[in-house]
Amino acid sequence: MSIICGVPLLECVYCLACARWAWKRCLHTAGHDSETWGLATAEEFEPVPRLCRYILAVYEEDLRHPLFEPPGGYGINPDWLILRKTYDNTQGHAPPYILYLDHDHADIVLAIRGLNLAKESDYQVLLDNKLGKKKVDGGYVHNGLLKAAGWVLEAECDILKELVEKHPNYTLTFAGHSLGSGVAAMLALVVVQHHDKLGNIDRRRIRCYAIAPARCMSLNLAVRYADVINSVVLQDDFLPRTATPLEDIFKSVFCLPCLLCMRCMRDTCIPEEKMLRDPRRLYAPGRLYHIVERKPFRLGRFPPVVRTAVPVDGRFEHIVLSCNATSDHAIIWIEREARRAMDLMLEKDRIMEIPAKQRMERQETLAREHSEEHKAALQRAVTLSVPHAYLPSRYGTFDEHEDGDNSHKSTGESSVGSSGKSKTKVSWNELIERLFEKDESGLMLLKESHRDA
After folding, report:
1. Looking at the 3D structure of the chain, how many domains does it have?
2. Residue 104 resides in a domain
3. 251: which residues sit within 8 A by CB, 6+ positions away?
4. Ramachandran region of residue 249, left (φ > 0), alpha (ψ -120 to 50) or beta?
5. 315-349 pLDDT, tens digit each
6. Global pTM?
7. Domain-embedded: residue 432
8. The domain containing residue 321 runs over which residues?
9. Pair 385, 312: CB distance under 8 Å
10. Environment class of residue 27 by beta-carbon count within 10 Å: exposed (0-12), middle (13-18) or buried (19+)?
């Protein structure tokens, strides 16, 4: 009898728990995702509004007679435009893009436009992927976006190499919005891996700004390339938070609110530990910049604040139930709010009247802080047992742990495997490095070298 009497009590407790969960889920706002992050500075955020305008310029047919120019213009000198590729030129392999030589900012910019809802080829790029389909550098990436990036690099490799060698002090920047953001992120990843294709360009000269980024790489890659790739998210944007396969979203693009609500409830029930340990799960790449300009239970937009971090857990995991989830994805709104945020940062700097020497010191301090934050994120990924996550070696390069992903490892294994048949000469630097990394193959090679002597 006592058990029967306790059933209604258990039902009440269960209903209260469900109501509490639903209430908290509905109250989850975009500000919660980045509330513990630090504030971005004007120096690091300066390229974002400018690159947004460059991406908008891809939509124009003639930059000398623009039709959709934003306030203040695109900031592009038509004489410095190297090339412009349309859908006719790319033949559906990649979205349209421009290559611009920005002498004012010492930058070589390749800007890629976002998804065109009327183009079937864009959908084919997004649909060309399944979880775990493509593995690169010890992690998983979106196969269709990687193929599009490979096509762009192959098409423009020669001219990019010429520009990089002709202007050794210029940075090489890849920028894109939505679909283009994924292609830009994959371009940065491929160029870093195959820097010899562009005249052995230094990693520090390569940058990527993914505006409203697609989730295109696994967590270990997203953190490892945070020194090169930057993602910019406006408030409630749905795409960086959508943990489902991209094809599910774009198949249901005309019923997106319904899909987002159902996926939101389902993903909330999945423990975060389980999500982190799924090696195939894709994430928004690199360092994240979150523009927050609305507050819960308040009408209208507020002065935007930009927060930044290299998070591992809590990395835009949950969709925000908001009527602005799709409008915040528009490149026009992102450019407008990024420009407002930048103006506020510059106004604050003018009030503080920071001298030029102190500004340079602050830039050096900022670079050092970003490097330390990047290392802390890598350490956090290892602590959370993120698949294929590891710390950089003491030599400043990443260890190669994955089979078939790095030529260095395969070379080392082949030399060890063939040492019994033919003697292979190995440099002392390689021997010492392997011994310091506690690699047994290094000890074997050392024995072989002594035997030769």
Report:
1. 1
2. yes
3. none
4. alpha
5. 887 777 777 888 899 999 999 999 999 999 988 87
6. 0.78
7. no
8. 30-384
9. no
10. exposed
